[in-house]
């Protein structure tokens, strides 16, 4: 069974920001609610939205396999990385890649794409 949450067409494309099966969770377009502030503010906002999306499915960052970080400007890497390191579990961080490219809004500095699994806490005990 597939669950689709946070269906939006904010950027002109109809999509679900959260799609989950019995085993996997896909989060797309994870960015901050506010586009004010610097890269650190935006990265904290994006990670808060990842945490909230996972919590809505009964999961947390320990269920994350992979995060793709998209930066509008690679000169933001060090500041983004500092926020990431404060957020990521030091003993079991997810795999991560960081890519730079133009994002759909000029004031958006970071967007995250996340692949996670169901650990059993949020889906009645099924294991991934």
Overview of the structural elements:
With about 130 residues, the chain is α+β, with helices and mostly antiparallel strands. It has a single domain (about 5-115), classed as RutC-like (60s Ribosomal Protein L30, Chain: A). The chain contains two helices and six strands. The chain has helices at about 40-55, 75-85, and strands at about 5-10, 15-20, 25-30, 65-70, 95-100, 110-115. It has a six-stranded mixed beta sheet with strand order 1-2-3-6-4-5. The longest helix has 17 residues, at about 40-55. The radius of gyration is 14 Å and the shape is globular.
Structural class, judged by helices and strands? alpha+beta
> What portion of the residues fall into strands of 2 or more residues?
25-35%
| Count of individual beta strands | 6
In the CATH hierarchy, what is the class? Alpha Beta
Low-confidence region ranges: 122-128
Oligomeric state of this protein: single chain
Name the CATH superfamily assignment: RutC-like
The appropriate CATH architecture is: 2-Layer Sandwich
Brief rundown of the structure:
The chain has 128 residues and is α+β, with helices and mostly antiparallel strands.
How is this fold's topology laid out?
Elements (H helix, E strand, L loop, with lengths): L2 E6 L6 E6 L3 E7 L8 H17 L8 E8 L5 H11 L7 E6 L9 E8 L11
Helix pairs in contact: 1-2
Which properties best describe this structure?
128 residues; alpha+beta; 60s Ribosomal Protein L30, Chain: A; 6-stranded mixed beta sheet; 32% strand; disordered C terminus
């Amino acid at each position: 069974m597939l669950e689709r949450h946070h269906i939006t067409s904010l950027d002109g494309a109809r999509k679900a920001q959260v799609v989950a099966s019995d085993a996997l969770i896909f989060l797309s377009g994870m960015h901050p609610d506010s586009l004010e502030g610097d890269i650190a503010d935006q990265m904290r906002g994006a990670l808060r939205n990842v945490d909230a999306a996972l919590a809505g499915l009964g999961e947390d960052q320990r269920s994350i396999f992979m995060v793709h970080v998209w930066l509008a400007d690679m000169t933001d890497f060090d500041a983004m990385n500092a926020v990431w390191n404060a957020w990521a579990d030091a003993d079991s961080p997810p795999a991560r890649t960081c890519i730079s490219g133009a994002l759909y809004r000029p004031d958006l500095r970071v967007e995250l794409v996340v692949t996670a699994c169901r650990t059993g806490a949020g889906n009645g005990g099924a294991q991934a």
